[in-house]
UniProtKB/TrEMBL annotation:
Residues 3-142 form the UspA domain. Transmembrane segments: none annotated. Belongs to the universal stress protein A family. Pfam families: Usp. This is Universal stress protein.
Amino acid sequence: MVNIILPVDFGDSTEDLLKGAIKFAKEINGKLCLIHVAPADIGFAIGDMGFQYFPEVEQNEIKQELFSLNNLQQRILAEGVDCEHLLKQGIAGDIILDFAKEKNAGYMVMGSHGRSGIYDVFIGSLTKELTRRATIPVLVIPVH
């Protein structure tokens, strides 16, 4: 069975991306390996007193994201596709590529765009970065 890395950000395009990834996994008898990378700065805020850390905010956000990952996994399993998931915090590109290597993945599935607009101007597209840096084929699914 071929491992297929599927990074998810729970954005508006997640539903279309999920449908495309499930279809692809069925076609090649693949296993979907979901990964969500949460920012390392969850729980930090800037206020009158400067930077402050609120661990309860971070814990609640991580708990919600893990709940969402579990729901996606259950939906994929219900479609007859094997699936596992991982949630990590840090730099998305590096963590996703490390996960692909760890899973000895054969493919990665990404959306043509997730976040858009001014974010991509300053930060850059994760899909663009991963298609450039990945050593495995990256299937880019158009999502709108």
